[in-house]
Amino acid sequence: LMEQLTFFHDHTMLIVIMITVLVGYMMSSLFFNTYTNRYLLESQGIEVIWTILPAITLIFIALPSLRLLYLLDEVSDPAITLKTIGHQWYWSYEYSDFIVLEFDSYMIPSNELDTDGFRLLDVDNRAILPMNTQIRMLVSAADVLHSWTIPALGVKVDATPGRLNQTNFLINRPGLFFGQCSEICGANHSFMPIVIESVTTKTFIKWI
Predict the structure, then answer these.
(1) C-alpha to C-alpha distance for 126 and 82, rounded to whole angstroms
(2) Helices and strands of the chain, counted as H and E runs
(3) Distance CA 100, CA 98 (A)
(4) Cα–Cα nearest to 196, from 146, 136, 134, 150
(5) Alpha-carbon torsion, ordered 193, 146, 132, 82, to 10 deg
(6) Which of 153, 184, 183 is nearest to 169 (CA)?
(7) Cα(138)–Cα(195) distance, rounded to whole angstroms?
């Protein structure tokens, strides 16, 4: 999905650049030429052209945009469901496909951090997920608005009290993926990081 979003961005920017160059060329040619036509009062042909061409251009932008919009909401047979609940100011995780495994994830304070830890980003309990597996995220909040966001995975889901939001993703490599709440949720909004640890399926089963 991230790749598709990048392709769509490039596609749209190409159209914008073409329009900018065309309009810039036409404006500069109007400034620097001395052609006049004293008898041109109207031209229905030109009006038809400058109405139809932008409409066709908008269609070229709208069709891939709508396709991508529906792709983002599509959940294709997830193997694992991870439920996340935002609190002031920490996250709770629940793996309900296996035994009911629940834990809270707090940021590690700077004075308790190991030498190889990441300041303001590391947590005491990481969410462990298997790579190359379709994962469904269910996101909600217990108190105020939060937002579960991991830029490296292209995931941003609002955590709203009383509402269950859903997204899906697939991690294609092992490693640590960091994120933070991206909704202003109070005094300690900056101190509720998210850490996903991607491991092999064998390691994940052993951890469970």
Answers:
(1) 13
(2) 3, 10
(3) 6
(4) 150
(5) 110
(6) 153
(7) 16
For the segment 173-199, the average pLDDT, to the nearest whole number, is 89
Q: What is the pTM of this model?
A: 0.68
Cα 63 to Cα 207: distance, rounded to the nearest angstrom: 44
Domains and CATH numbers, the chain: 1-32+41-73 (no CATH), 80-207 (2.60.40.420)
Tokens of 18: 């073409």
Q: How many residues does the chain have?
A: 208
pLDDT in tens, 194-206: 999 999 999 999 9
- Bridge partners of 32, per DSSP, are none
Write out pLDDT tens, residues 18-72.
999 999 999 999 888 888 777 777 888 888 998 999 999 999 999 999 998 888 7
What single-letter amino acid sits at 179?
G
Cα 181 off chain centre by: 13
Contact 169, 137 (CB under 8 A): yes
Pairing of strands 101-105, 80-87: unpaired
**Token output for 132:** 């190359």
As a whole number of angstroms, the distance between CA 131 and CA 56 comes to 41
Rounded (10°) CA dihedral 114, 116, 120, 125 = -70
The rounded distance, in Å, linking the Cα atoms of 96 and 171 is 20
Could you read off the pLDDT of 108-148 as tens digits, one per residue?
888 888 887 788 888 889 999 999 988 999 999 998 999 99
